[in-house]
Specification:
The protein is elongated. Strands 2-3-4-1-5 form a five-stranded parallel β-sheet, sandwiched between helices. A two-stranded parallel sheet has the order 6-7. About 60% of the residues lie in helices and about 10% in strands. With about 325 residues, the chain is α/β, with parallel strands linked by helices. Helix 11 packs parallel to helix 15 and helix 13 crosses helix 15.
Length: about 325
């Protein structure tokens, strides 16, 4: 299941409409969502009995204590929850012990494994539920933004503002949360799209994303508006040209590796999986032929600048016109 389905699943289980899994494996590229998912799962234990029935362990200390705790009957409450954080590769012996437990788990305990996607692959089966905390889709990020705005201190936020915040943060919940703290403090009563544009800085990667997205749609007006923002911020033309080349190179790799997950492509390209998600959103609007032509165009213009055949400003302008026409 994905993060957005976890709360509904737990509510259904509490009301007897669904069953709790003995093991939940929490992983994903959004650290905030991973932490939030673990907190939700810890609430399986009633607050009054959390001192007795909620335990946290780290795999750095081995897994024996965690497994022993799982086999201990809960005090007063119905379930015992054991959270095991796996920050690094497990020793073979520890991995074997955990796999053995997941194949015959204790019925009165819930094991929550917090780990990365690669480790998560080791734990599968009918007793295991994977909770994928990947970067949210834009609609889900907007829904989370509105939910956060409804929490104290309560502020209103219109649809355009929520969408703008999601776009500028590339749906990264950690940054959304930190930006909302600032927006709530300075906006009286309600957050507007103008407030978001004024107070939430679009980082360089986001601006490059906007530029390539506009070019992919052959939206010259938007592309040159983004380019103007770069100029006003003092970004050199050659840096933009180099970043465009790097972005198109990665988009071509992403399209050639459609069978791989975001995590796998991220490992190949040394990118965060959530950045791969946004990369693929743009690359999916291109054909592989168009990406290759765009890449060749940018490479030729880079060579022209480095060989002194043209200056970097005119090379970037030429790149923009050619990319819009390809």
């Amino acid at each position: 299941m994905i993060y957005g389905e976890l709360e509904e699943h737990l509510n259904s289980a509490i009301n007897g409409l669904d069953r709790l899994y003995p093991v939940y494996v929490v992983h994903g590229s959004d650290d905030y969502l991973c932490e939030s998912a673990v907190k939700m799962l810890s609430k399986i234990v009633e607050d009054d009995f959390a001192t007795f029935n909620l335990s946290k362990f780290s795999s750095e200390d081995g897994v024996d204590d965690a497994i022993e705790c799982l086999h201990t009957y809960p005090v007063f409450g119905q379930y015992r929850v054991v959270i095991l954080e796996i920050a690094q590769k497990l020793a073979d012996g520890d991995r074997a012990k955990l796999k053995s437990y997941t194949e015959a788990p204790d019925e009165t305990s819930v094991l929550v494994l917090s780990c990365d996607a690669e480790i998560a692959k080791s734990f599968k089966g009918k007793s295991v539920a994977a909770v994928d905390c990947k970067t949210l889709e834009t609609a889900d990020a907007v829904a989370q933004i509105k939910k956060l705005c409804a929490m104290p201190p309560v502020v209103g936020i219109d649809d355009a503002a929520a969408l703008e915040l999601a776009k500028r943060t590339q749906n990264a919940m950690s940054r959304i949360v930190s930006e909302l703290v600032k927006l709530k403090a300075y906006c009286e009563g309600s957050i507007s799209a103008e407030d978001v544009c004024d107070m939430v800085t679009a980082d360089f990667d986001f601006q490059i994303y906007e530029l390539t997205d506009a070019v992919s749609k052959k939206d010259g007006d938007t592309a040159f508006k983004v380019l103007d923002v770069f100029y006003k911020n003092g970004v050199r033309s050659m840096r933009i040209l180099n970043q465009l080349y790097d972005r198109y190179r990665k988009m071509l790799h992403a399209e050639l590796a459609k069978g791989l997950s975001n995590d796998e492509v991220g490992a190949l390209l040394a990118m965060n999986p959530k950045a791969v998600y946004h990369l693929r959103k743009v690359s999916s609007t291109y054909s592989q032929v168009r990406l290759k032509k765009s890449l060749d165009c940018l490479h030729a213009l880079q060579c022209d600048v480095l060989s002194g055949k043209r200056n970097e400003s005119s090379a970037l302008q030429q790149a923009m016109f050619e990319l819009l026409l390809i």
